[in-house]
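yo

u said u wanted the structure for the complex thing, so here. seqs first:
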Amino acid sequence: MSGKPLIELIDVWKYRHLESGTVPTLQQISASVENGSLITLVGPSGAGKSTLLWLLNRLEDPDRGEIRLRGRSIKEIDVLGLRREVGLVLQQPVMLPGTVKDNILYGPRLKGAGEREVDAAQLLSDVGLSPSLLDRDAGKLSGGQRQRVALARTLANRPRVLLLDEVTSSLDPQSTARIENLIIRLNREKNITVLWVTHNLKQALRVGREAWILVDGKLVEAGTLPGVFLHPQNALAGAYISGKLEGVEEH
Amino acid sequence: MSTTALLMTYSFVVLAMMLSTWQRLGLERDLVVGTLRATVQLLAVGYVLQLVFNLKDWPFMVLMIGVMTVVAAYNASRRGRELPAIFIKVLVAIGAAEIMALGLTLGLGIVEPTPQFVIPLSGMFIGNAMVASSLLLNSLRREIISHRAEIIVALSLGATARQAVSESLRRAVRASSIPIVDGLKTVGLVQLPGMMTGLIIGGASPIDAVRYQLLIMFALAAVMAFTSIILSFLVYPALFTPAHQLIER
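structre next:
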């Protein structure tokens, strides 16, 4: 794809302030995301993958550097609109008070839209759940059900960019496959750009066309799949990939 | 009460100190300090009140209410020391509650606009507004900590700070209003309120005492609700950045 990238990260740094001192969680991240791409973000725990998604949704701002969407700094864009357009599914699928329907329609209702504009039942079946759950108290769902409702809730905002943080971690292989197919379909048919954090390298190989490997807050390797996993140029990336691929569970 | 009788009341303190020494509770020092402070503070207030009552002077009355409000705001704002400009915010909330309660009491002609009524009533309004402020700041902190994840989810979906925190604000206001609502339900069954007891001992008829007590209880319910709602609206913006991001504390 030619022209300006959809998202640009320019020398992005983020620090955590601990009692023992200040430590960087993201360092010197420079990268770009083309419109319509599907990128998986992999790396050890604490590598800064989730933080990166938080910055893209502007739940936090970088301490240094800049993030641009279509060439404009995201700080210049209305933050409420940005968060709808760049939708985030958090790692912890926390339910808001109310029913499953209340959760799915939360975003649309903030803008005065409701059941007429958004088909909650369709979204629920898209993520592999029965529409009969719509009136169920969301707090009483299982972990796997919550994870899928959280995804449907973000999709209800009709985002152009989808940030996914370990969204299949509590799902069985069958449900995982369904979610993977849904995301791939949204990416191909609706041209939704996807950044998908996963600890599961086989999943990354199944769904991603590109991968970013983060280690200790640094983007150590970025490239197309499967090449970037098979022939990593960076030693840290190589060590992570080889350690992870050997012991990886079958999903 | 004669001065001799007043002096005899200290025998209660002596009794408490003897119990403390016997059981090695180590409360003697605090008891002495507390007794001295209570004596000095209350005697001083007594003389000031007598002075104000005799002067029947509005500026003095307003000054006294002002001092009470500032002291109350200072005390309550210590519960939210980490929040910016918390003293001013608590001052505004308590002041607004006092103006509302006193305005209604005087405006509706429930009591006479004399120092004898205005000062003690204001003391009760302000004192309870102070308690409501402390409770609100405490429960709001608890709410934000325990429902942080929900607030983040709401923000991530495009909610404003106000929308994301509205459930927590509601719960915090409700929690800080519980003491007075519970009080309304059990008053007279479990205990006789201090003011009513005082009036009866002072020679008022129990029926008269009850009427004033009802005024106080109803006014205090409004004061508690008013204070905590105003304070919650003043405080929540400080929990977020202008870009609707929850600030870590």
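The mean pLDDT of chain B is 90. Chain B has two domains: 1-55, 56-239.
cya
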